Amino acid sequence: MAKKCETIIEELKKIIEDVVFKENxxxxxxxxxxxxxxxxxxxxxxxxxxxxxxxxxxxxxxKREVIDEYKKIFVDxxxxxxxxxxxxxxxxxxxxxxTLSENFLQDHIFEIIEKGEEYDNFxxxxxxxxxxxxxxxxxxxxxxxxxRNAAYGDTLVNIWKKYxxxxxKEFYINDGGGQIEKLAQSVYVRYLQxxxxxxxxxxxxxxxxxxxxxxxxxxxxxxxxxxxGHKLVGANLETVKLxxxxxxLNIIKDTLAKFDVVFDIxxxxxxxxxxxxxxxxxxSLEKYTYTAEGAxxxxxxxxxxxxxxxxxxxxxxxxxxxxDIAYHSIKLSRGYDKLFNIWGADHASYVQRMNIAxxxxxxxxxxxxxxxxxxxxxxxxxQEFKMSKRTGNSLTLQDMLDxxxxxxxxxxxxxxxxxxxxxxxxxxxxxxxxxxxLYYVQYAHARINQVINKNKNVEMDTKSLSLLNLPIERExxxxxxxxxxxxxxxxxxxxxxxxxxxxxxxxxxxxxxYTSNKIIDEVNLDLSSQRxxxxxxxxxxxxxxxxxxxxxxxxxx
Length: 557
What we know:
Elements: H1 8-22, E1 41-43, E2 52-54, H2 56-59, H3 64-79, E3 85-91, E4 95-100, H4 102-115, E5 128-132, H5 144-162, E6 166-173, H6 178-194, H7 209-222, H8 234-258, E7 265-268, H9 269-274, H10 277-284, E8 289-292, E9 295-298, E10 309-312, H11 321-332, E11 338-344, H12 351-360, E12 368-373, E13 376-380, E14 383-384, H13 397-404, H14 406-414, E15 422-425, H15 426-429, H16 437-454, H17 471-481, H18 483-493, H19 497-516, H20 525-548
């Protein structure tokens, strides 16, 4: 075997690769290219089928006669790797099941104990990512969609960093368009009303309670400076725009900080205009543009789009697409290997044209990946929370934090696939039983901590786990060895919910183990020491997973 792999699945794949290539076992008529050989290996759901299995013989469409001819030879050759396998067997129509050796599993447990909080660190990779997420307009408060976006993006970054990838978290401040003008005018109407001036908000204004808060703060700072003529123009307009944007942006930053989300980069759209960056980008795209009916178009149909896209309208104003291209060109100039965005599902149709523009700027077609998130509902007693008691408008992230707390919010917002709708039931979230997954995971951690604290006279056995031969003990050992593979999978597939699923499964196994067996048995201290070792390993992995979610592990409940 080559140098030690970082996950158990990588190790198993390497063994299969050794058999296929080093021992000249070819699985089709022309052989298999090593660079494209990537057998799928899965953890078995039932121990009677071994601990792990692969169906790569079927997946690679090997002819039946080839499978029949080589299946015994192949299994026999795999079985020679006795350091890793206790048993290898072939099951029709083409599965190979592995039962791992006790020493192999034992080594993984001891590695968890030895490395502690460093166990789930992967080797540094020469990769630099940028993830842009949340990016709410600074015209109001963060709503539940922003909350999901924040929890998911932040957790994904934590896992990437564990996996050895460097990442910048970025928030794009949409402060360069007409919505900021509308914000300033909305604040100004509320400002006038504070002086008993009769002024009405136009229907398309911002009506939230936070607008009154901005107007009140504006009055406190500037007094009646903007009253003259009851009009907001020129320098006064710019002052109010900047004041209103900064006021609301500070609230957004403060709320995100309470949610334990901090960004590396806050990029202002207004910089694109101040530095006149759009003309530079248009120059770079010149060979792909043309003018028709007084408007400037981008030839996106050359790259598969259903129609060419307008960059500059006939009235001379930019479409939303144009500054977005400029913004992505700025990110590209920083040298990232990949760009990632998390957007609402309503932006799905926008992705193709953005990817095309990035290609036109000289980048590969996989440079940008966009993840889409669906809506979130908060319910209690079967009724949806629709209005914020604080603002009288849509429910906000702050409302969620007030209602269920940071830890529950972060768990439930990432425990479902990003492209599925979420209904967070407040009654379930506050339950202290197995129906509340987060409580169940936290309780497993606290339960083990209690075992440790009550039995300080019992030392862990860090040389052997040979007495741990119950089926559930083997299942726990396999689950622990599988942890780093889960992180690797998330790092490559961006499916953060897999972490919550894993922690639930591990907690469920441990609760069942604890309930059915004495962890510490005074009449059998050797067995107790080994069970304590296994328990500590479970506690460490639970703690590591919760910390990636930025949830503090509970030591007592």
